[in-house]
């Protein structure tokens, strides 16, 4: 660990790292408390996550300036996990939820070791946009209860169902504090923002306001936060719940990977550097594993903390470690100062987070860009909010991939050209057109261009229906750089059908090694006479013309030799 730290830290940036870490810690404190409370695990769980994930993800990660904290998407997922497990297992549910956090960390480490970092973010943007917007809506809906002075219960559906009752019995003091918090975050002047984050300012002023003017208003507050180091939480599970916990862990781990790597890309664009995706996943995994082992929330690379860290001068992993150590001091000594913070103030902070998570830019123009994109994005968003996060992503990715495959198949089908006569539209040279005319309608040229995957197999198979009208088939694969298994099987079937109709077959083989290897593995080249496999289309046309000019009895003997 010490060697890794020394190799990655350049102490000439220590001043910038110090200010970057301090600023990131100030931004992270209200978020950690708010996310901890809204998750159902308590404010301390958010602080433990900042300390453990923040420190070890910075130490072992692959993005020097990344700040790792609890994030909105991760908190929404773990809140749903905690709600379900504690309702099914009242005594062990919370500890089982921390085990899910550990599993998420293990999955992230596995993804990094398998070098899957560069593939993690290869997800359709429509799915990511819908999912993130759904997460933002969930966060807003879950905070309506605390904003009105009530404890949120029953998840999203419970919030929607209880909304009329909450409005009728709202706590004016709680609503006032929540709106005050939102207003302060939105309208704090830029000059003040440069000195203190508006979230922290709202947290402090909102708490002071509640103690001075609303001390007897029956406000829900954070309450006592134990000081001292976190206690070890051993992995806890039951066999009936293990399968679901593993699925939740995989989902949480994948979400953390996407969240972190997208933030790493933002950090790269600001610092003009290049992060190591696989190393970052391993660092995030170690941090989340340790956070779960000590009763902390899951987390990921936090965009807000990362940006303020860089703007304040952070340049190495030392800044992320400093931010974690500063918040460790809060856990050890300053926790009593957070006890009077009202839940309504935290709700105001989180509603702003939810609003920021929603992809407003894409929401406003999705229907203009593409109706299909809008359908996928809105579908994923609604499934995320009202059904299930895993179902939403699974259905969204499946539909998006099916539509993409359909478009690719249509494009590949256009590259399967059946040429039966020479005209001005035919992609042939003048010499090839002249040779084609000499065939007098007895020659079928099937030209394949571009990569041929399973999307082109249907178009190739379609050409079998017209082969009975010709005496010679020229199959031109010289422009094919890649030949998939399904497309190769379609070619094999095409050749078998041509032989069945006693056509002479000439193959124009290209120079692509992968295509030749594929044809050899399927023994397609063995089905043809050696002199019928050529490397040039003009040569194939010349041989076809020579073949057609032979006497009828020779033609019958030659075509019969295929069998």
From TrEMBL:
Keyword Transmembrane helix: yes
GO cellular component, one term: membrane
Cellular compartments annotated: Membrane
Keyword Chaperone: no
Topological type in the membrane: Multi-pass membrane protein
Transmembrane spans: 18-38, 45-67, 94-114, 126-149, 169-188, 200-225, 245-267, 317-335, 341-363, 375-400, 443-460, 472-491
Keywords linked to the UniProt accession: Membrane, Transmembrane, Transmembrane helix
Pfam families: STAS, Sulfate_transp
STAS domain span: 443-544
Gene3D superfamilies according to UniProt: STAS domain (3.30.750.24)
GO biological process, one term: transmembrane transport
CDD domains to which the protein is assigned, alphabetical: STAS_SulP_like_sulfate_transporter
UniProt-listed InterPro entries: SLC26A/SulP_dom (IPR011547), SLC26A/SulP_fam (IPR001902), STAS_dom (IPR002645), STAS_dom_sf (IPR036513)
PANTHER family listed in its UniProt record: SULFATE TRANSPORTER
Protein name listed in UniProt: SulP family inorganic anion transporter
Annotated source species: Thermosynechococcus sichuanensis E542
């Amino acid at each position: 660990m010490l060697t890794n730290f020394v190799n990655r830290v350049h102490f000439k940036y220590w001043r910038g790292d110090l200010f970057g870490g301090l600023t990131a810690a100030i931004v992270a404190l209200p978020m950690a408390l708010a996310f901890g409370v809204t998750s159902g695990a308590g404010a301390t769980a958010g602080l433990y996550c900042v300390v453990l994930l923040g420190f070890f993800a910075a130490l072992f990660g692959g993005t020097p300036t990344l700040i790792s904290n609890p994030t909105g998407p991760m908190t929404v997922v773990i809140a749903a996990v905690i709600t379900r497990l504690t309702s099914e297992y009242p005594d062990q549910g919370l500890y089982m939820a921390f085990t899910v956090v550990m599993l998420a960390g293990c999955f992230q480490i596995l993804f990094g070791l398998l070098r899957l970092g560069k593939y993690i973010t290869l997800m359709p943007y429509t799915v990511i946009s819908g999912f993130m917007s759904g997460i933002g809506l969930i966060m807003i809906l879950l905070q309506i209860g605390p904003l009105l002075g009530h404890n949120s219960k029953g998840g999203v559906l419970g919030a929607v169902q209880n909304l009329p009752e909450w409005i009728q019995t709202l706590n004016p003091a709680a609503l006032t504090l929540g709106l005050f918090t939102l207003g302060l975050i939105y309208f704090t002047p830029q000059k003040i923002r440069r000195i203190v984050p508006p979230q922290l300012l709202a947290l402090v002023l909102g708490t002071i306001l509640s103690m001075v003017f609303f001390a007897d208003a029956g406000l829900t507050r954070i309450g006592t936060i134990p000081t001292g180091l976190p206690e070890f939480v051993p992995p806890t599970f039951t066999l009936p719940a293990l399968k679901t916990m593993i699925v939740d862990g995989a989902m949480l781990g994948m979400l953390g990977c996407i969240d972190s790597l997208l933030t790493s890309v933002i950090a790269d664009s600001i610092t003009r550097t290049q992060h190591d995706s696989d190393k970052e996943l391993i660092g995030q995994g170690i941090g989340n594993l340790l956070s779960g082992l000590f009763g902390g929330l899951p987390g990921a690379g936090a965009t807000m903390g990362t940006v303020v860290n860089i703007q304040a001068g952070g340049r190495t992993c030392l800044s992320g470690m400093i931010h974690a150590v500063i918040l460790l001091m809060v856990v050890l000594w300053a926790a009593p100062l957070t006890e009077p913070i009202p839940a309504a103030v935290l709700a105001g902070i989180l509603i702003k987070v939810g609003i920021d998570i929603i992809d407003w830019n894409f929401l406003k123009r999705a229907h203009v860009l593409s109706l299909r994109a809008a359908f996928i994005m809105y579908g994923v968003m609604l499934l995320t909010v009202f059904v299930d996060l895993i179902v939403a992503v699974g259905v969204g990715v499946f539909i998006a991939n099916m539509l993409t495959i359909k478009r690719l198949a249509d494009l590949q089908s256009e590259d399967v050209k059946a040429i039966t006569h020479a005209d001005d539209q035919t992609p042939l040279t003048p010499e090839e057109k002249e040779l084609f005319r000499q065939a007098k309608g007895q020659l079928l040229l099937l030209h394949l261009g571009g990569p041929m995957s399973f999307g082109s197999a249907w178009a190739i198979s379609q050409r079998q229906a017209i082969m009975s009208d010709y005496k010679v088939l020229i199959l031109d694969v010289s422009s094919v750089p890649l030949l998939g298994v399904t497309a190769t099987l379609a070619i094999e079937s095409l050749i078998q059908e041509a032989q069945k109709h006693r056509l002479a077959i000439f193959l124009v083989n290209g120079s692509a090694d992968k295509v030749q290897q594929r044809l050899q593995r399927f023994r397609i080249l063995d089905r043809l006479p050696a002199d019928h496999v050529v490397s040039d289309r003009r040569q194939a046309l010349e041989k076809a013309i020579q073949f057609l000019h032979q006497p009828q009895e020779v033609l019958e003997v030659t075509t019969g030799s295929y069998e």
